[in-house]
Design goal:
Blueprint: H1 2-10, H2 12-19, E1 22-24, E2 35-39, H3 46-52, E3 58-63, H4 71-83, E4 87-89, H5 94-109, E5 113-116, E6 128-129, H6 134-142, E7 146-152, H7 154-157, E8 171-174, H8 190-208, E9 212-213, H9 217-225
Parallel strand pairs: 1-8, 2-5, 2-7, 3-4, 3-5, 6-9
Antiparallel strand pairs: 7-8
Helix pairs in contact: 5-6, 6-8
Length: about 270
């Protein structure tokens, strides 16, 4: 109930009015039955805008810190996250992370949508980072299709450290569902898990037009915090990196609809 009140009455209409979000490919989200929505992760507001633009309820996992904040702001954040169904996850890994994925698995078994960010954390610089294999295990164990999603512009509207996003159009592109039923029963094969994860990340890259970096986003954040700078390729040097060693897709970052007559939803 709280989810739909926030979406339809309290928060959703305001977000539509101010940010004029747009979406392409929403028909790729199944009208019923379980599905995993796998999205790039550019900003905190990703978890607000994607559910806003879908007809079905979409629940994400969120970092544990959203639920443990102190003071008024912390309590409000925790209450909002619980109200919209966000599943807390301890990003330290191990049994805590496994518990969050099990919660997601139960949601899929009930025929619902479950959202996950395969990178595990926000991109520190707008690029797409290596996916963690938890999403592959979830897909193989549940048998649910994986729907790739590209969020567009949220990192510009809300850079790291900015609380209130600036007013600009927010977009998202939804790709065709990926079927991994051919790997049924192979969820404990680490090579299969990596292959499936790379296929998902490649699909996201093809939608988003992002540059891919074959390291984990958390690793890159640690490098940045430590003051380590990576060498930059020459301006005319072609990009060759893509998930799983695939060729880099010839795609561009999606842009908002230019025709104002074109609806931003539907």
């Amino acid at each position: 109930m709280f989810y739909w009140l926030m979406k339809r009455i309290f928060v959703g209409p305001l977000l539509h009015l101010v940010y004029r979000p747009w979406i392409r490919g929403e028909h790729n989200v199944p009208a019923d039955g379980p599905a995993i929505l796998a999205s790039n992760h550019l900003a905190v507001i990703d978890s607000f805008f994607l559910p806003l633009m879908l007809d079905r309820e979409l629940v994400f996992i969120g970092k544990q810190e959203y639920f443990t904040g102190r003071g008024l702001k912390g309590r409000l954040t925790a209450g909002f996250m619980r109200g919209v169904g966000t599943i807390p996850v301890d990003r330290g890994g191990g049994k805590a992370s496994e518990a969050a994925l099990r919660t997601g698995l139960r949601r899929l078994e009930e025929g619902d949508l479950f959202g996950i960010y395969p990178e595990g954390t926000r991109s520190p610089d707008g690029r797409l980072y290596r996916g963690k294999t938890g999403i592959a295990r979830l897909a193989l164990e549940s048998g649910a299709p994986v729907v790739p999603v590209a969020m567009v512009g949220t990192n510009i509207a809300q850079p790291v450290g900015k609380r209130i996003p600036k007013v600009m159009r927010i977009g998202m592109v939804v790709g065709e569902p990926l079927d991994f039923s051919r790997y049924k029963g192979m969820e404990n094969d680490r090579f299969i898990l990596r292959s499936v994860t790379d296929e998902i990340m490649y699909a996201i890259m093809s939608l988003s037009g992002q540059e891919y970096v074959d390291v984990y986003a958390a690793t890159q954040k640690a490098r940045i915090a430590a003051g380590v700078t990576e060498s930059q390729p020459a301006a005319d040097e072609p990009r060759t990196a893509a998930p799983g060693g695939r060729p880099v897709p010839d795609v561009q970052v999606p842009v908002p609809p230019q025709d104002e007559a074109e609806p931003s939803v539907g």
